[in-house]
């Protein structure tokens, strides 16, 4: 793996275990990977005067080549506006959008080597599947033979060869989704933008398309920028996730970093389930810090990058990083069991704490280990060292 | 059952006397037309006594030179006016739907649709005065005035179906075309226009029919010796009424019904 990083080009077999994000970096022999899209201080204000609304607020981010980059956030957080800015449907009020170093923010959409998969697919209803896929190439005035060849390749890539001559109204939602993907991939854009493309599909199809999307990304080597409000989708598919709220990017990191080490309360709350506790910082460690919970227990906790925690802080503990134990004195916290919810694979225990309100613990159900807790029991909660994460706010 | 009848929602269909009213309306609307069509096939000259079936009046109308001239003028004016009006209306519809909302947009709607509201007689008089001045300046007395006048009042009729079609069309499709490297013109030609076509056709046809049967404005605008079919018929009927008029009217009716049927089918097709 390291040898591959040193020598550009001789890394074929070894990279298979490397994370996809690192793969691009390895290929280019740099630590960071070449930047495909760079946003520098991008803002977008709609309206003016008293009605002015800042949809995107001074966003700066580098998106690397061949990366599966996800913009995650609730509706209205500015993620779709950011996508539309990159596509060229909107122009930034201030800031720059650089594609491979070149400022593209003044260019119209048809002059940008960027294609979009729309939420509604937006397939041309008066054309066949094949004509839809050919559209971009024809607009680029590629020779007929090349268009035909690419269309065939794309049909094969999304497994739609049989339906090439169907009207788009005669195919199912999942198939329309594939056509929309093939149409956007056919001109081989530098960057593919995907605006909640899976939200119209049912659960099973969505799962299939998630895998399909990952496959397409690795086969084509194109940078994907994916917009979603679905945290599970973001966690399973992305190389990196940017969590957005109110026009700002709050945190950027790998799914693991975002989930295990959320820097802010919003991020912790939006992704996965969280328990928030008040704590005192005892002393900083390297890395992390030692903290004391109100119950008196001291634990080591993770600390967001660049933060020097001191005094009283809020920490987050994921429900699966804690355990309920029968002896109230044995855990870091103690409380009364108010509710037990059975989920099949695991069970959720709701524990009422004297100071911090409700604490949820998730424990996996294993054969023969049916725990014998009952609501109303006084229990202890065990929290492992390193499980708490200090938040910036 | 009695229970069900009591809770039935209000419907005009169940008011007493509704069927009678409906019948009276239909009779008033269609009885004269049916009579007119019937007597166009009358062998005799009479407008009230049936003298047996005959195509005689159709032949007479067909061979009447003045009818031929008037028909030709009607067709030329209607064709030119509906073509120009449809083009202008398409541009207007694009300009009022494919932009961000701007101040005065409602004012523009009203302006475009104004000919629907202004009494025809007013338009007629106004055009008469303006064209009289132009005629004095230029000396031109051709059919240009008729075409211009017809174009003017046909625009809103062409505009409405085109705009309706545009509004029901997903604007994301045009965004998708732009995203796939189509310049605005190419996006229009390859995506907007093909999808808009039924609306344009419907608008054009409506404009054609409206132009074809206009009397009031034509009467004011036409130069001496010019006659469209409706104004020719009007002048004839003032002198003598023959079943020849019935025959011409029947042909007219047939053309209108055909065009309106196609218009209806086209505008229904857009909802699918």
UniProtKB/TrEMBL annotation, chain B:
CDD domains: TM_PBP2. It comes from the Bacteria. It is found in: Cell inner membrane; Cell membrane. Residues 71-263 form the ABC transmembrane type-1 domain. One of its GO terms (biological process) is transmembrane transport. InterPro entries: Bact_Polyamine_Transport, MetI-like, MetI-like_sf. Its main location: membrane. Gene3D superfamilies: MetI-like. It is a multi-pass membrane protein. Required for the activity of the bacterial periplasmic transport system of putrescine and spermidine. This is Spermidine/putrescine transport system permease protein PotC. The lineage of its organism: Bacteria, Pseudomonadati, Pseudomonadota, Alphaproteobacteria, Hyphomicrobiales.
């Amino acid at each position: 793996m390291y040898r591959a990083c040193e020598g550009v080009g001789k890394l074929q077999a070894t990279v298979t275990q490397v994370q996809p994000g690192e793969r691009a970096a390895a290929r280019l022999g740099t630590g960071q990977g070449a930047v495909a899209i760079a946003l520098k201080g991008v803002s977008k204000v709609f309206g003016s005067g008293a009605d002015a609304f800042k949809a995107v607020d001074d966003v700066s981010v580098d998106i690397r080549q061949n990366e599966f980059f996800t913009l995650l956030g609730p509706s209205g957080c500015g993620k779709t506006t950011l996508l539309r800015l990159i596509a060229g449907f909107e122009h930034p009020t201030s800031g720059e959008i650089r594609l491979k170093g070149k400022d593209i923010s003044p260019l119209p959409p048809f002059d940008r080597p960027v294609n979009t998969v729309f939420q509604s697919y937006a397939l041309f209803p008066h054309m066949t599947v094949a004509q839809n896929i050919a559209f971009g190439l024809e607009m680029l005035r590629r020779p007929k033979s090349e268009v035909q060849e690419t269309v065939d390749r794309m049909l094969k890539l999304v497994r739609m060869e049989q339906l090439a001559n169907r009207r788009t109204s005669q195919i199912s939602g999942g198939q329309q989704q594939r056509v929309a993907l093939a149409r956007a991939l056919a001109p081989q854009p530098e960057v593919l933008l995907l605006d909640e493309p899976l939200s119209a599909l049912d659960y099973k199809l969505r799962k299939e398309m998630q895998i399909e999307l990952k496959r397409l990304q690795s086969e084509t080597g194109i940078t994907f920028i994916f917009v979603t409000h679905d945290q599970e989708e973001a966690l399973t598919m992305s190389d990196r996730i940017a969590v957005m709220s109110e026009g700002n990017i709050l945190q950027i990191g790998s799914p693991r970093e975002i989930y295990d080490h959320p820097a802010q309360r919003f991020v912790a709350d939006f992704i996965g389930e969280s328990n928030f506790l008040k704590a005192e910082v005892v002393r900083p460690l390297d890395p992390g810090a030692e903290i004391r919970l109100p119950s008196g227990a001291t634990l080591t906790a993770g600390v967001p990058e660049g933060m020097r925690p001191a005094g009283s802080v809020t920490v987050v503990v994921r429900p699966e990083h804690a355990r309920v134990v029968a002896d109230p004195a044995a855990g870091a916290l103690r409380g009364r069991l108010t509710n037990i919810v059975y989920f099949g694979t695991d069970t959720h225990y709701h524990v009422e704490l004297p100071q911090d309100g409700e604490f949820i613990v998730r424990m996996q159900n294993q054969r023969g280990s049916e725990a014998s807790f009952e609501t109303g029991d006084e229990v202890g909660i065990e929290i492992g060292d390193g499980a708490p994460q200090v938040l910036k706010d | 059952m009695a229970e069900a009848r009591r809770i039935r929602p209000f419907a005009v269909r169940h008011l007493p006397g509704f069927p009678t009213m409906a019948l009276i309306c239909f009779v008033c609307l269609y009885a004269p037309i049916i009579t007119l069509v019937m007597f166009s096939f009358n062998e005799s000259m009479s407008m009230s006594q049936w003298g047996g079936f005959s195509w005689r009046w159709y032949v007479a109308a067909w061979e009447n030179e003045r009818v031929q001239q008037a028909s030709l003028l009607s067709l030329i004016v209607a064709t030119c006016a509906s073509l120009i009006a449809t083009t202008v209306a398409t541009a207007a519809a694009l300009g009022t739907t494919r932009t961000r909302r701007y101040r005065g947009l409602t004012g523009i709607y009203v302006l475009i649709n104004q000919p629907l509201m202004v009494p025809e007689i007013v338009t007629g008089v106004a055009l008469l005065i303006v064209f009289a001045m132009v005629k004095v300046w230029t000396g031109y007395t051709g059919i240009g005035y008729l075409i211009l006048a017809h174009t003017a009042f046909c625009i809103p009729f062409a505009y409405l179906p085109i705009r309706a079609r545009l509004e029901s069309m997903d604007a994301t499709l045009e965004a998708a075309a732009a995203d796939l490297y189509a310049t605005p013109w190419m996006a229009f030609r390859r995506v907007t226009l093909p999808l808009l076509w039924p609306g344009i056709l419907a608008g054009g046809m409506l404009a054609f029919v409206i132009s074809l049967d206009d009397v009031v404005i034509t009467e004011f605008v036409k130069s001496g010796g010019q006659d469209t079919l409706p104004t020719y018929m009007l002048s004839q009927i003032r002198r003598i009424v023959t079943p020849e008029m019935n025959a011409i009217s029947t042909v007219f009716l047939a053309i209108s019904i055909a065009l309106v049927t196609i218009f209806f089918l086209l505008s229904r097709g857009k909802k699918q």
